Amino acid sequence: MRKSGSRPDYMAEALAEARAAAAAGEVPVGAVLVDGRDGTILARAHNRVIADSDPTAHAEMLAIRAAAALTGAPRLAEAELYVTLEPCPMCATAISFARIRRLVFGAYDPKGGGVDHGPRIFEQPTCHHSPEVIGGVQEQACGALLQDFFKVRR
């Protein structure tokens, strides 16, 4: 049971999802989408690009889809998304469209990121909604998981 005022470690939950992705041979990215009002986990997901033969089956996209289906709402204005890697431009745009309140990510992605790198989606004048962004949370653990995964494959 959770003590009043304490919050679970949502990035640890996202890391568990990322490990599940790695075990399945997918790029190890995990996401957890949380109701920011009460801390309830609405959805958790990991990359399933290979398993689903779907280039859009990124952890963030899958978590957003699952939470929207669960809530029956296309907007997740009170939600917080925890993801182990800086979202790509596609996922950053989906986060904006879903009106997610807060994005918390682990490792930065200088090559494929779309938040602090690349097109910086939330800074574009055409972006309809910019969430609060907190980057670098458990960055070393998130980055190490990715590095270890790719080290084996190169």
Description:
It is a single chain. This protein has 154 residues and is α/β, with parallel strands linked by helices. Helix content is 36%, strand content 18%. It contains five helices and five strands. It has helices at 10-23, 49-52, 59-71, 89-97, 139-153, and strands at residues 30-35, 41-46, 79-85, 102-107, 132-134. The chain has a five-stranded mixed beta sheet. β1 and β2 (41-46) form a beta hairpin. α1 (10-23) runs parallel beside α5. It is globular and about 40 Å long. The N and C termini lie far apart (43 Å). The model is unreliable at 1-6 (pLDDT under 50).
How would you describe the oligomerization state of the chains in this entry?
Answer: single chain
Principal-axes shape call: globular
How would you state the average pLDDT, rounded? 94
**Largest sheet properties:** 5 strands, mixed
Q: Tell me how many strands there are.
A: 5
- How do the helices and strands follow one another from N- to C-terminus? HEEHHEHEEH
Approximate helicity band: 25-40%
Terminus-to-terminus distance: 43 Å
Main-sheet strand order equals: 2-1-3-4-5
